[in-house]
Amino acid sequence: MIVDLRSDTVTKPTAAMRAAMAAAEVGDDLAGEDPTVNRLQSISAALFGFDAALYLPTGTMANQLAIRALTTPGTDVICAPRAHVYRYEDAGAARNAGVQMRPVEWQSLERELAGSHHHLPQVSLIAIENTVMAESGQPMNRDEIDPIQRIAQGAGVPVYCDGARIFNAALATKTAPRELVAGCAAMMFCLSKGLGAPIGSVLCGSRSFIDAARADRHRLGGGWRQAGIVAAAGIVALETMVDRLSEDHERAAAFADALAQRWPDALNASMVRTNIVCAQSAALPSDILGRLRIHGVLGATIDANTTRFIFHADITDEALQHAITALNRIEG
User: Is the peptide bond before 306 cis (omega within 30 degrees of 0)?
Assistant: First the structure.
C-alpha cells in the first residue's frame, strides 16, 4: 500500500467527476462561450457573494492575477510571515506585479501601515490566507479577520483572501464560506486540493476586477479553449466533496496524535484542526521521510525546518492506520 500524504493535490478525480467530464458541454472559453465554465463561475461567485468569477488553471495564477489587479507597482503587499504568496510562488509578485511582499505579524498591522508616513513604501494590498498552510492548516475565524479588515479599511487598503482551502476553514470554524470572505475585495479557492478535482482554482471579485484578471490571464498565456471538460469536475467537486472534508480533519488529528506521542517536541497536536500536519523536522528522527517511504508512506518538507503531511479524499481509515503503524516502526 502507498499512502501519499505529500499534498492534497495528489487526489484522483471521482467516478462522478470523470462521468461529468465525459459528458460536459463545451465551447471556447477564451471567447466566453464555454457553458460549463460559465456555470462553474456563476456558482462560485454566488457561493461567496461576489459579482463575478474566473476559472483558472492554478491557485498560484489566481493569486498572481489578483495581486496584479489590486496593487500599484512600487508598493508593498502585507502578508503573514509564512504566507503562500510570499514563500511559495517564486517571488511572482515582484516579477508579475512590480510589488514587494512585506511579511508581518498581524498584531503589528496598524503600526506597519503607519510606516508609510515615515519613509517606508506605500501599502496597496493586505493578503490573508485561510487556512494557513504552513501552520498546520490553521483556520482563521471572523474574530481574527475582523480586526485586519477594520484596520485595512481605516487605511484605505483592500484585503485579498488566498482561500485555497477556505472550505476546510469553514468546516473547522463552523462558519459559512461566504462569511469568511465578507469584506474582502476578492478571493480565490482551489478545486484541486481537498475537493479532489483534477485541475483548477476560481478567482472571485467585482465585475471590473474579474475583467482585469481575465485580460491579464490572456497576457500570461492562460486563455484556454474547451475548458468545460475540466470545469465539469469542479462543479461536481463543489456539489459532492465539501462536507466530506471533515473526514480529512479527523484523520489528520489522529495522525498528529500518533506523531506527537512518539516525538512530543515535534508538534502540538491540538493545533491540527484541518487536514494538514506540520512538524518540526529537528525534533523528528533523521531522514524520517526516507524511512517512512520504505513502509509506503510519503510525506514532504515545506522548508528546512518543517515536515508536512496532508490528508485528503484518497486517504481511507485503512491508509491512516497503515501510516500510523509505519510511524511506530521507526526507531529514534
Answer: no
